[in-house]
Amino acid sequence: MFRQQGGAVTDPLGARQAGARRTREALLTAAAAVFVEQGVQAPIRDIAGRAGVGLGTVYRHFPSRAELVVAVYRHQIDECVALAARLRDEPIPAGEALTRWIGVFVEFLVTKHGLGVALQSEDPSLLTLHTLMLERLVPACASLIDAGVAEGDIDPAVTAHTLMRAVGNLCILGPGYERADAQAMVARLLVGCRRRS
Amino acid sequence: MFRQQGGAVTDPLGARQAGARRTREALLTAAAAVFVEQGVQAPIRDIAGRAGVGLGTVYRHFPSRAELVVAVYRHQIDECVALAARLRDEPIPAGEALTRWIGVFVEFLVTKHGLGVALQSEDPSLLTLHTLMLERLVPACASLIDAGVAEGDIDPAVTAHTLMRAVGNLCILGPGYERADAQAMVARLLVGCRRRS
Amino acid sequence: MFRQQGGAVTDPLGARQAGARRTREALLTAAAAVFVEQGVQAPIRDIAGRAGVGLGTVYRHFPSRAELVVAVYRHQIDECVALAARLRDEPIPAGEALTRWIGVFVEFLVTKHGLGVALQSEDPSLLTLHTLMLERLVPACASLIDAGVAEGDIDPAVTAHTLMRAVGNLCILGPGYERADAQAMVARLLVGCRRRS
Amino acid sequence: MFRQQGGAVTDPLGARQAGARRTREALLTAAAAVFVEQGVQAPIRDIAGRAGVGLGTVYRHFPSRAELVVAVYRHQIDECVALAARLRDEPIPAGEALTRWIGVFVEFLVTKHGLGVALQSEDPSLLTLHTLMLERLVPACASLIDAGVAEGDIDPAVTAHTLMRAVGNLCILGPGYERADAQAMVARLLVGCRRRS
DNA sequence: TATGAATGAGGGTTCATTCAT
DNA sequence: GATGAATGAACCCTCATTCAT
Fold this sequence. Notes:
The structure is a homotetramer of 197-residue chains.
Chain A: H1 13-38, H2 44-51, H3 55-61, H4 65-89, H5 94-111, H6 115-120, H7 127-150, H8 160-170, H9 179-191
Helix pairs in contact in A: 1-2, 1-4, 4-5, 4-7, 5-7, 5-9
Chain D binds a DNA duplex (21 and 21 nucleotides) through helix 1 and helix 3.
C-alpha cells in the first residue's frame, strides 16, 4: 500500500531474466556445437564448459538431457512444419512440393550431425525427441504425401513415418559419405516413391 | 602321475591349439548373440560371461572391441562377397543380380541389430570394420553395378561405396521402423538407382 | 507519483520491519511443515518454495540451517520451560509432575518427525540446538527431578541431562515403532527412575 | 583327457581367492572404522581409501551400501543370537537372562557408533539391516521375554520388537551422553519392563 | 531487503583395461 | 593360455551457498 512499484527497491526483474535468457541461449548454441562434434550423448560437462557456465546451470535450464536436445532442435523443427504448410498452398505439383520439403529436412539433418543418430536411438531419455518428430513433422510430411497421392504422383503405399525415418537414416553422415551423397541418395529414394507408371 | 605320454611334460601342441580355437569360437558365438541383444557397444564382461570364459580371455583373443566385431561379421561378409561372384555369372539381367545381392546384404544387416549403428559410427575403434566393408564388399558391389551400367540398366552416377553406406543406414531399425520397412525403403532406393529412361 | 507521505522517499521503517517479520514467520511455518515431512535435513530450497520466498531470503533470515531449526522449535521449547514452572507450583506429588512434564515433552518430540534425529546428530551445524536444549530444558527438567528427589520419589542418581537425552532418543520413531510405542517406553523408563523401595 | 590337473597350467585358484578374501576383510575392517567415525552413510570413497583399494573394488565385493553394512555387523548379530540360546538354557531366572542379554546387545551397539542411527533410519538402502535385525535378533529376544513372562517376572505387554528398538535408540550416543549413560538408561528401562507387583 | 541464477564440491555408479597368479 | 580381482577415469546428478541486480 506504500509502494506500488516493487521494482524501486528490489532490482528490476528484467535484468536477471535477460541474463538467464542469454545463458539459456549460450547453452543452446554450445550444445548444438557439441552435438555436432560428439553426438547428442556428449557429456553434459562438455556443454557446460563450452558455454562457459557451471554444470549446475545446465541442469537448472534443462533438467534432463532430452530437454536440451529437444530445445536445440525444436526451432528448426518448427520451421520445417511451417514450410510444409506454405508449400501445400503454393501452385506447384504435390510431388515437387514433397521433394522441396524433404530437401529442407535433409539440410536440417545433415547440418546437425548427431541428430540422425539421436533420431534412431532407442535411449529412453531421447523418447521426447521421437515424440516431437512424430507429432510435428510426421503430420506435416503426411499432408504433402497425401496431396501427392491425390494427384496420382506418389505411391499410396508410402507412409510419412517410414519415409521420414528412412530419410533420417540416409542423413547419417560419415567419412566417404558426405552431405552431397546423402542428398543424392534421398533424391533416389524419392524417385522410388513415385507411382509406378 | 598320469603321464601316459612318455616324456611329454607339456601337452602336445595340438591339444592346446584346439582348446584355443574352441574358446575363440565360443567367444564369437557369444558375441554375436550379445550384439543382437545389446548392440556392438555391449560391455565386454557380458560377452565373457555368455561365453563362459574370463574377461582376460576375451582380451587375449581380441585385443580391441573392433577386432571382435569384425571377426563376428567377417564370415557373413565373406559369404556376401562370394554371392556377388556367383550372381555375376548367372544368366540374369545385371539389375536383377544387384537387387538380389542387396537383398541378401539387407538380410544380413537387419538381423544384426546394432551393426547398422556400428557401420556409421565414427568411433575409431570400429574403423577396422569400415575398412573391412570397403575392401571386401565395395568391390563386390561395384562389380554388380558395373555390369548393370554396362547393360544400361543402372545409372552410371551410382557408386558402390555410397550405395552401400545408404543401404547400411536404411537398415538401422527402431521402434516403428522394422525390418519390412527397411526392405521396402531399400527397394525404393534401388528403383531410384536405375537409369532414367 | 504516489508519494502520499511527504518527503519520505523510502518507506517508513515500520512497514519494512513488519514485512520482514511476516517473511520470517512464513519461513518458520514453512520450515516446520517441511521438517515434519522430510526431516530437518530437507533441502533449503524446499523451505523457500513452501514459504513462497526466494532462496536468498532464507539465508538472510537464518544464515545457517541450525538457526532455522532452533527458531522453529524455540517457541515450543519455551512452552515446555513455562510448563515446568507451573507444574512445580501445583499441589501434586513431584513424581507426578515429572511424569506429566515428560509426557508433554514426548508429545513435542513425536509430532516433530526428524527432531529426534536432529537432537542426537553430531552435525556441528546443529550444536546450537543441543545448546538450546541444555540451557533451557535441562534446568526446567532438573527442577522437577530435584523436587522428586526431595520427596523421596525419584532416584537421586537420575540427572536431567541424561534423562532428556534418553527420552529424546526414545522418541525417534520409525516403521514398527510409532508414537504409542515411544510413549510406552518412556513411561517404563520413568518407572525405572523412581527410588527403589 | 591329457591333463587331469588343470591347476598345473593355470595358476592355483587358491591364491586369488585368498587375495580376494583378504581384500574383503580389509574392506570390512575399514568400513567398520569409517562407520564409527562418520556413520553408515559415509562416502564409499572414504571406505575404499581407508582400505587402500580402488573404488570399483568396493562395488565388486558389496554392490550396495546395505550389503556392506550388513556384512560389517552380521558376525556380531550372530553372536547375540547364539548368546540368547545359551542364556535360555542356563539355570538362572529369566529376568536375569534378559538383563544379561540386553547388556551384551548394548555393548554391541555402543561400540558401533553409527549403527544405532542406521537402525532407525528409514533409508530404503538400509532396509536389509532392519530385516536382519528383525529376523534374527527379535526372535532371540522374544524367546527370553517369553520365558520371563512365563515366570511372572516380565510384563506381558512388552514386545521384543519394541523393546529392541527402544534399546537401540537409547544406545545412540552423543556428547554428554556416553556409554555409561546409555547402559544406565537401558537398565532403568528394563526395570520398567518388570511386572508391577 | 529480496531475489534466484550461477556455481562447483561432493558422492554415486559403471566399465574398459591391466596384470599377477 | 586362462583367469578374474583390482583399478580409476569418466559420467551422472544434487544441493548448499554466494552474489549481482
